[in-house]
Amino acid sequence: MYKYSLIIVAFVICTGFTASIFLTPTSYDPNTSVSSVLIALGDEVPEHYVGTVNMEKLGLGKDLINFGGVYMNGAVESKLSEHFVCTDCHNTQPETKFAHDNDPDSRLQYSKEANLPYLPGSTLYGITNRTSWFNGDHEKKYGKELIDPARHNLKNAIQLCSKECSVGRELTDEEMDGVLNYLNAMDLKMKDLNLSELELASISANGQTEEEKAGNIRLLRSKFLQGYPATFTEEIDVKERKKGEEGDLENGKWIYEKSCLHCHGVDKVTEKTVFGSGVDQKSFAWLAKYFKKSNGGSVYWITRHGTSSKEKTPEYMPIYSKEKLSDSQIEDLAAYILAESKK
Ligand code: HEC
Ligand code: HEC
């Protein structure tokens, strides 16, 4: 008799236990990838999705993105480009606290808090969650023929950027596989979305109907950008420029150091225009001298037009869209340049 009751007790404990597994909603870890949640809800699996990341492949992808090739014995081999690495123009970290936010002021503030470069390309963090790339006015720079295949295909967007933006070559299949493993590891995480407790409970609930699942997919997608908008704009008119007389000095210093010097510093991207006070370097006085002019030396002009890659100087300056550098941030930069030029 005693034996039987033990079995019954064990049975109750076991069934009770399994039942409770089925009853408690899946509570997603803050570090769960957003793509995996979307797929669990029945969303379409993107072509670039790799599922479980392979660490060896990730290592190759990480080298390619951060060093521009395969890093071996202190040297970089099989370079994608002689002139750039991806991280000259793209961060690999979140650029705002939550993924729906793309405001330049929030991004600048966040770059200060996280000590991040402030760059003309969008962050590669969360790029696997987007459904369109090279949006808006990028077509004006690269043309429809190059943009169309890349607009809704991440692999093609990577190839376009590696060849055109990076002035380099396309990736081999193995390199692409590595890069995709690295980028998939940078998929948005649940903590990057500004979800309320209620929303999280709805997304995690068990036994959802097809309709509820579809609603939750829409809800999740509303919490991050499906594609980064890009608006090219003309430089501020000569008559409207504040020419350094007004602007936030602290912001200006940050933009100068974390954006311009990212390429114009010593031993960085630029050959002709290294910023500094040394011989053959471009000083603050040199930069300030161009405030009233509409040409390449003017920070007002150059940020909106960039330069193009030529045979003699293949490295070029990208265009900053309005989303990546606002007009008021350019005035902040001018204020800093003017203040420093007087020192
Ligand atoms: C000289 C600057 C520069 C370099 C170097 C560069 N990119 Fe880009 N990239 C850009 C700009 C500018 C865009 C325009 C769209 C954006 O990022 O918002 C872009 C766009 C992209 C996009 C589409 C982003 C989106 O959300 O629309 C991908 C993917 C990309 N680059 C990958 C790479 C990879 C991989 C490398 C290295 C092999 C690389 N890029 C190197 C400047 C650069
Ligand atoms: C992604 C790299 C990159 C970033 C970021 C960048 N530049 Fe440049 N810039 C270049 C390159 C490359 C050139 C071409 C000349 C050279 O190689 O020195 C250039 C050229 C220039 C020139 C000279 C143009 C001419 O016609 O002679 C100025 C002025 C300039 N940049 C200002 C800036 C300022 C101001 C910032 C920050 C807001 C900035 N750049 C950010 C890469 C960059």
Describe this protein's structure.
- The chain has 343 residues and is an all-alpha fold.
- It folds into two domains: 28-230, no CATH class; 238-341, Cytochrome Bc1 Complex, Chain D, domain 2, CATH 1.10.760.
- 45% of the residues lie in helices and 2% in strands.
- The protein is built from 14 helices and two strands; from the N terminus they run αααββααααααααααα.
- A two-stranded antiparallel ribbon has the order 1-2.
- Helix 3 packs across helix 8 (173-185).
- It is globular, with a radius of gyration of 25 Å.
- The model is unreliable at 8-24 (pLDDT under 50).
How are the SSEs ordered, and which strands pair?
Layout: H1 2-23, H2 34-40, H3 55-67, E1 70-72, E2 75-77, H4 104-114, H5 138-142, H6 144-151, H7 154-165, H8 173-185, H9 197-204, H10 210-221, H11 249-264, H12 284-289, H13 299-305, H14 327-341
Helix pairs in contact: 3-8, 6-7, 11-14
Distance between the termini: 95 Å
C-alpha-based Rg, rounded = 25 Å
> How much of the polypeptide forms β-strand, as a percent range?
under 5%
What compounds sit in this structure?
A: heme C
Order of helices and strands: HHHEEHHHHHHHHHHH
- Residue share in helices? 40-55%
Content-based structural category: mainly alpha
How many beta-strand runs?
A: 2
Question: What's the shape?
Answer: globular
- Largest sheet: spatial strand order: 1-2
- Tally of domains: 2
Major beta sheet, specifics? 2 strands, antiparallel
Low-pLDDT runs of 5+ residues are: 8-24
Average pLDDT confidence is 93
Number of helices: 14
